[in-house]
Amino acid sequence: MVRTIKLNDGKSIPALAWGNGTGGIEHSGQKAIDTGVVALKAGILHIDTAQIYGTEKEAGQAIPAAGLDRKDIWVTTKLSEASHVKTNHADIKRSVQESIDKIGFVPDMILIHTPFVPENGKLVEFWQGLEALVEDGTLKGCSIGVSNYRPQDIEELMKVAKLTPAVNQMEYHPYVLNHLDPLLALQKEHNIVTQAYGPLTPVIRHPTGGPLKPVLEKIAKRISKDTGKEVDSAVVLLQWTIQMGVVAVTTSGNPGNVRKMAQGETFGKEGDLTKAEMDEIEEAGRKVHFRGYKEHMTKEFPEPDLPQDL
Ligand SMILES: NC(=O)c1ccc[n+]([C@@H]2O[C@H](COP(=O)([O-])OP(=O)(O)OC[C@H]3O[C@@H](n4cnc5c(N)ncnc54)[C@H](OP(=O)(O)O)[C@@H]3O)[C@@H](O)[C@H]2O)c1
């Protein structure tokens, strides 16, 4: 049984996802299928794809290639700018249908990739287009949500939404917590689950690793000892993310790293971070502000005045 997180629409989503939009897998054809198979066979039962990654088809193909049944795997996709979706409902429906056709089935979740996918001033109308597709059965059984939405975007939607977004997918890790505080408070109020992309940013994108480096290394040693498995700082961060109640959307094009990140599904209690370890990570993370993805979430959502490193 993989770890899951309960959504506001009643469904349970696998808490660890393998994405085919980065890590050299995006637009990669056969590699997206082959590495998807490695992830699925290793026990990661959630694939995160998007129109803009050019790998929706491969997300669908990886499932039978791994010898698995579609109903046992969660697939998330996103409507992207590249699809030139306009905000009228017919265009949204056409764009959604294109994704369904490429994936080969109705996915488990569709997100709006950024608040800039809808035409300017049409954020609410776009959301209503997705709601209409749930109502008319096109998206039967499919959760709908958003990505890279800032506090002002969530507030605007929630004034009129009939269906609350199930999730907001964003860059999430200890080095952006100070920035995200108001957004996360709003999501808590509306019971919107956070999905973390870029969860490994402190380990792989921060130039020195920053104040978290020694903390993660210490915890990795402790878990390796207690579980008898080879655990590194990346795996510790994924454990922390999931224990924060957040879906961790990570990736790797390297089968060894894919198998390592899947280990968290098998650790049992010894692999859980203690309350003290969780707090130590958050405290170290909050000392700095560092983003890996600068193009998202910073427009008209001011960043905290903190150093990038100590
Ligand atoms: N909604 C959005 O706007 C948005 C934006 C960005 C990403 N995403 C989604 O999120 C997914 C993940 O994004 P991300 O790349 O930012 O995630 P990430 O988890 O921060 O980074 C993934 C990278 O970490 C490396 N890695 C994995 N395990 C490692 C280990 N044990 N030690 C060292 N390095 C390790 C991988 O490199 P190797 O391949 O060398 O192992 C991989 O390239 C994407 O594929 C996409 O599906 C969504």
UniProtKB/TrEMBL annotation:
Protein family per UniProt: Belongs to the aldo/keto reductase family.
Protein name: NADP-dependent oxidoreductase domain-containing protein
Domain NADP-dependent oxidoreductase positions: 19-202
Molecular function terms, GO-annotated: oxidoreductase activity, acting on the CH-OH group of donors, NAD or NADP as acceptor
Site feature: Lowers pKa of active site Tyr: K78
Organism (species): Dioszegia hungarica
Domain of life where this protein originates: Eukaryota
Binding residue positions for substrate: H113
Any one Pfam family match given in the protein's UniProt record, by short name: Aldo_ket_red
Residue positions of the active site: Y53
Keywords: NADP, Oxidoreductase
Keyword RNA-binding in record: no
The keyword 4Fe-4S is annotated on this UniProt entry: no
